[in-house]
């Protein structure tokens, strides 16, 4: 502690950021919780309904469960890229001798493009008429039968809206994991190799345990960011066709700003927060244990 | 001195015999190929956007939009500027990004200074309160803020976007600054205090100037998200004059009948350029910052 500090100086530095944070983040969470017990369209009087919104959400709303399932699928596909591909790449990069800096820069590039632009891009990539990139590639390799309008086929649309989300941040997570791998003491890996361990064994028993703390952080970041994914499905399909690519976030948004059902939308918001907290608890619980398996 | 120790001398034991160097070379080559393929996957779509923006519009509509352009044109850019008020969107995005960044850096640094350097009884609790914000999804704030804004007349203003953008960026900002402040040696502060410098002077003369690297990281990471923010702008802004780039880009879609894709991708190129330039110039500092920010603490 700074010897010359005074109570006033602490307040001068702490209050402005704390107040803004309370108004923009903390109060809205509380307010959502409050609103979730009411029925309100924003115009007429608010009507207290107790737990009705929660009962409706958990027992009577098929769209909600559909959206929840979709959100998990969306999460799985983005984690495949953001953790799986990113970890593989980070490891491969340690064996590359030249051009590492260029590679890192190029991997990060998609992260700086706006989701609206990514939406435009993937609309073209997936399009059927005129033939988009994916269908062209399929035709080129003789798999014409698989060509389809990826965004209007109910069986493929969820995967189609999830891939761009995974793709755009793969480089970011790769970079973080790569930095963690660089911090693994080279003697350790060297010693394991001299004892005849294969590259996989070195990774499994030396490298991975060493980067576990960073891996936990990365997993938490990737999971919570994917659970709040919104822009790309909203822009590409608006949750359609039907509810085939509806996520909890897009469903909440439409409930609030299309159906102006603020109470029920807040109930879904509260659920999204709970879901994120549960995901973090689960990740920490699963990964912290020493002998825990590789996720 | 410890640095020298980690710079390990070559192991005394000779390299374990038996492993054929041929296999190693093949593995290395495979690795390089795989890395290159994934680079292509990451970069090709962006290159495609650029090619679409310089490709003659008829060729884009009629022919194969995935081949190389037969000739290069700037007409798409002309139309991009005619179809919508592109400069206005860019100015709006600049205003929102600059104002938010100033607040995120200043407030983040202030909070971290109070928590980490000045210290007070509940400092750990306050830090925890900030850190919890990292996992709060932004969507939870949309309905409450929309209601509150409409009550106090803040809907459809720059502030309506800036407030939540700053609020949701503060946790990471506070976290990065507190982690950095741990590394400023106590003695620096004690010496300054002995010279009679108060907490304000120490902040402006010592802490802030030392934090330049962290500031670069914080600003860059946030600029990406703020420059590209869609959800807050889409929820709180209605009028054309306040539209930021992500909202403005949507004006290109179907507004005048069929979408002019070439002009749209030209507009995308124009709007990506400022961020891209900053990224390429600050590249090393940014990558270094991301790496150390994520792995420390």
TrEMBL record, chain A:
It comes from the Bacteria. GO terms for cellular component: plasma membrane. It is a multi-pass membrane protein. Keywords: Cell membrane, Membrane, Transmembrane, Transmembrane helix, Transport. InterPro entries: MetI-like, MetI-like_sf, UgpAE/MalFG_permease. Residues 68-283 form the ABC transmembrane type-1 domain. GO terms for biological process: transmembrane transport. The chain crosses the membrane at residues 12-38, 71-94, 106-126, 171-188, 209-227, 262-287. The keyword Protein biosynthesis does not apply. Belongs to the binding-protein-dependent transport system permease family. This is Sugar ABC transporter permease. It comes from Jiangella anatolica.
Automatic annotation (TrEMBL), chain B:
Residues 1-20 are annotated as: Disordered. It is a multi-pass membrane protein. It is found in: Cell membrane. Residues 90-282 form the ABC transmembrane type-1 domain. It comes from the Bacteria. Keywords: Cell membrane, Membrane, Transmembrane, Transmembrane helix, Transport. CDD domains: TM_PBP2 (cd06261). GO terms for cellular component: plasma membrane. The keyword Lyase does not apply. PROSITE patterns: ABC_TM1. SUPFAM superfamilies: MetI-like. Belongs to the binding-protein-dependent transport system permease family. This is Sugar ABC transporter permease.
